[in-house]
Amino acid sequence: MALQFSTVTRKGPITIVTLSRPEVYNALHTDAHFELEGVFNDFAADPDQWVAIVTGAGDKAFCAGNDLKWQAAGGKRGWGESGFGGLTSRFDCDKPIIAAVNGVAMGGGFEIALSCDLIIASENATFALPEPRVGLAALAGGLHRLPRQIGLKRAMGMILTARHVPAREGLELGFVNEVVPAGEALAAAERWAQTICSNSPMSIRASKQTLSRGLEVSLQQAIAEQRDYPAVKAMAASQDYIEGPKAFAEKRAPNWTGK
């Protein structure tokens, strides 16, 4: 697939997706959304790719959200089934996805980051759901994910004021995992990804799926049903399930295959 609005780099089992519209602070329009949907579909389907990182081109922006100038000029608006940036409605990917936020993450850009499993932010990163300032609302998941991740009152404080939150405050609020110096977000995200990849990918997928599904039901139901989750069954039937204990007993590093 020829890419116009993003780039994809693979480093071993790690896929790095870069939103590449720096002239508009990596804001996204319809064609970009559908391109990114294809990119993340490919990542999800590739058994040799275990972790994805999404970041923005340049040093000013992760993603400024919806391309309002494109919309105001009459450009069509919309995205595919997987949502804004190919991620905000992607509920069936059990592989970890990390946001390396290297600058502004506004509106849909923040919603992309919130849909990721980890957020690594540079010191110059800022986050906001500013849609009310232009007569819109954060309907690509932001209004639902933010209160789930940081609590109702803290989320209301951001949403109702549409204020900008710097990276350090994001760390204090709980939606950022780590803050690093400007220009180092991607390198730090790769470090996190490499650490994840030192574990069995089958176990990682089982863990993410169990956590995600378990939060949708009661604790009692989650514990009772977890062994029937597809990713847990796949883990228990995998070569990695045998390799891990064997490597431990032989006092050597495990050779994970993701199978």
TrEMBL record:
CDD domains: crotonase-like. SUPFAM superfamilies: ClpP/crotonase. Keywords: Lyase. GO terms for molecular function: enoyl-CoA hydratase activity. It comes from the Bacteria. Transmembrane segments: none annotated. Its EC number is 4.2.1.17. Belongs to the enoyl-CoA hydratase/isomerase family. This is Short chain enoyl-CoA hydratase. It comes from Rhodopseudomonas palustris (strain BisB5).
